[in-house]
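Take our chain:
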Amino acid sequence: MSASMNPPMHDPTRPPTSERACARAVWARVAIAGAFVVCAVCGGCAGAQSVLDAQGSQARMLVELIGSVTLVCALVWFAVMIVLLRAIRRRRVEAAGPAPDAARERRMAFVVAGAAIATVLIVSALTVASFIVSRRIGADAEQPLVIRVRGWQWWWEVSYPGEPADRTLVTANEIHVPVGRPVRLELAAGDVIHSFWVPNLTGKQDMIPGRDNTLRFTALRAGTYRGQCAEFCGLQHAHMALVVIAQEPAEFDAWRDAQLAPAMAPALPELQAGQQVFMSKPCAACHAIRGTSAAGTLGPDLTHVGSRRSIAAGLFETTRGTLAAWIADPQTLKPGNNMPMVDLSADELQAVSAYLESLR
């Protein structure tokens, strides 16, 4: 008979085609998953609102915990993949061979028991590590800077208690802190559940009506760090941002002294007209401007609103134009907010926006 009629020789050590295809599919899935993980990690490694770009002592503790948990989980995952691939390669040989003997069954039972024990130990170790980090983050420091933050729909009221009471500073949507000094935030909510989160500096903490919570952090480097409400709180939840501005201690003291000063009396005719409009309209019933008769508490304190980087909780950069647009039609810009539309003429709108922009 010719060689072409002989059946091909079978190599018992070579896995069949179907098993090789299965192994390739598994490795392909492994490569895709690895690429996805790498892209996801690299995409969040830096930026104004990145957990991995830690610039606070508490945030660095969290990054170390995240790294440890990720490393352990990755090692476990790779171990499982290796065992799975070995099982696929041995499938045919074990199916064709004799039934496992009692000694082998015992070894397999020991392996399964060891894996179960290892799982319990790993989960327990990660739980203990998480507990320790949580305790360290919540530990009180000596002489912290106390800042009270209250969440509203949809803005942040920020106050710095002072002694005597007239040294208490009230602002909105911006938190200034000195670099290197521990900060204790006293958190509360005025209406619904909110959640305070500045990823670069510390973890998140819920703000629940009727219950006060605290959060601590120490900024390690000067800079501006973006925060966000991390609990769905209504229609404009996505537009409830804030910034934490870490400054050198001397700069922070100068900022605080400037913010404690009352609003300067307007000198220009247009600004004087704007102040008169503000005081004669419903604005003064909801907002306060220290140094004037406006003493409302329903909306943000506007004593130095012109010095803030943004209005409407990070929605717009603070300019005369954005102030005018907000005053003219706040419901179009941020539907559902609690500021009513005030009926103003074009001249009144120009004057009051100029006055507010001058409050620095």
About this structure: Residues 57-96 form the longest helix (40 residues). The first strand starts at residue 145 and ends at 152. The chain has a mean pLDDT of 86. The CA atoms of residues 88 and 299 lie 66 Å apart.
